[in-house]
Amino acid sequence: MDFARGIKKRERISSFQRHQQNMAYVFIFLPMILFLIFVVIPSLMSLYLSFTDYNVIQTPKLIGIKNYITLLKDQFFWISLKNTFYYTALYVPLGIITALFSALLLNRKKIGIGIFRVSFYLPVLSSAVATATIWIWLLNPQYGIINTVLGWFGINGPAWLADTRWAMISIVVMSVWASFGSNMMIFLAGLQGIPDYLYESAKLDGANRWQLFWYITLPSLRSTTFFVTTMLFINAFQMFDQAFVMTQGGPGNTTLTLVYYIYNNGFGSLRMGYASALSFVLFLIILTVSLINMRFNSENVQF
Amino acid sequence: MNKLIKNWRTIILDGFWYVVVIIISIIMVMPFYWTIITSLRPNSEMFAQPIRWIPSHITLIHYIEAFSTVPFGRYFFNSAVLAIGGVLTNLFFGSLGGYAFARLNFKGKRVLFIALLSSMMIPGIVTMVPSFLVLKNFPLVGGNNIFGHGGNGFINTYWAILLPGAAGAFAVFFMKQFFLTLPEELADAARIDGCSEFRIFWNIYLPLTKPALATLGVMTFQAGWNSFMWPLIVLNSQDMMTVQVGLASFTYNHSANYGPLMAGTVIATLPMLLIFIYAQKYFVQGIAFTGTKN
Predict the structure, then answer these.
(1) CATH number at residue B196
(2) pTM given for the model
(3) Chain A neighbours among B 3-62 (CB < 8 Å)?
(4) Domain that includes residue B157, residue range
(5) Which of A48, A127, B210, B216 is 20–30 Å from A174 (CA)?
(6) Of residues A225, A221, A162, A170, the one with CA closest to residue A191
(7) From the CA of A44, how many Å to the nearest CA of chain B?
(8) Closest chain B C-alpha to A280 CA, distance in angstroms
(9) What's the complex ipTM?
(10) Which residues of B touch A38 (CB under 8 A)?
């Protein structure tokens, strides 16, 4: 009797588990199929294509590591790599400083604080294409607001987007302006998560404002800063929209980024194999930077 | 006496704070003001020197020109279909997948979830060339034969955007995190009553996720509406372009025609602005989630 009941119970549990498992497979079936077709297969295909010569019309021809050798001798690859690093080297630190600074600035209860937060955040709502278009107008050498304002101070502004020295810097400034608001909000959320008693007890110990910032605020924001930095790096290495709209990679290839060059190869001259090889190099760069960043972060985590 | 000095100090510091914050706010908002003004002012004052900060009168001529030179109305419609379609598919598949990973037990759960999560590390550009090829060579659609040859497949159709974006790893992850915050006991009670797993999901848990769905919806809409590179690649015929792609090509072709150009920019930005005004709360929640997810 007991024995029979035991069996029945076990059967019931396992049939319930089987039902749950089957339902789970039904639930994830379509998401997983799409994931397979549009993420897993393309990732593997991309690796395969990077070892081929493929122009869409003929079938891919395996050529070993020839694409990667071509790439090393390709001066445009090096130019685009240099431009991408230049952009990243300016954009990432500026992006962190502006976001952190404005978060500290706006992390207090004052009259009108909501309006200020919204104004700082406003450009984030707009697309890269829209903000880039606006800035083409602002940066107009003769009639743009920026050179007009500079003129008030007796400064003769350059031709910005048409000037090889200033084109990339213009894009950096515009991109920081357009995007720091979202990281500012992330920092604000982080700041509001720091418990008050930390500050209270430090004040009792006689810490000044600067010490409070250096020994409490910054360490408490460590994981937020790490996250923001990583995302900024990943975004910076893939900059495309702004360069496409504002300068088309010019003048004199000074704003040709790596993603732009991949786009030109893959979808402009239909060198799909070569474009895949380039995109794998970019992938490796992003992976390396992310890992270094992660390592750096975990080393500093004890305090 | 000491207190008085302290009061003065706070007032000066407060004043200084307001000056800094207002200057930055002007830098942030001025470009948008200038965009709107440019789009509404007559051509005769466009290049007036010195700059006129307020137009003498308002005209819609640039909007009319923008809409008549290129089919902006059509672009707008395409963007709306794609952004709303993206929201609906992501909400649906995101909550299905998220629920399964959060609340159901099945073989291979951990492996699949890690695979999904690590896919978010792959930069978009890596999968763009092959995804384009998959869409172009999809069998039996768009004039393709069973081997995927002969036609253009899904290229230049809405599917080219909707299919690759339908089940975003982020949506699944986002919804999973939210389902984990809901009490498990609800499901146990329903199971004892003999409720099927689908009904537990659909009738008990899904209604509780409304705030999360709204947040995810807003984020997905913004990403869809503002996306540029992928639509640029897969939608290149005039009548399939999105607002962003249309605006970029308009910029390219009419770079000195600032009136219609700014009108186009206003049109491309307006929907996001309206959504922000009505759903500001969900933007803030989305950001809070992004900031704490690691």
Answers:
(1) 1.10.3720.10
(2) 0.90
(3) 14, 17-18, 20-21, 24-25, 27-32, 34-35, 38, 46-47, 49-51
(4) 70-292
(5) B216
(6) A221
(7) 9
(8) 6
(9) 0.90
(10) 127, 131, 134, 163-164
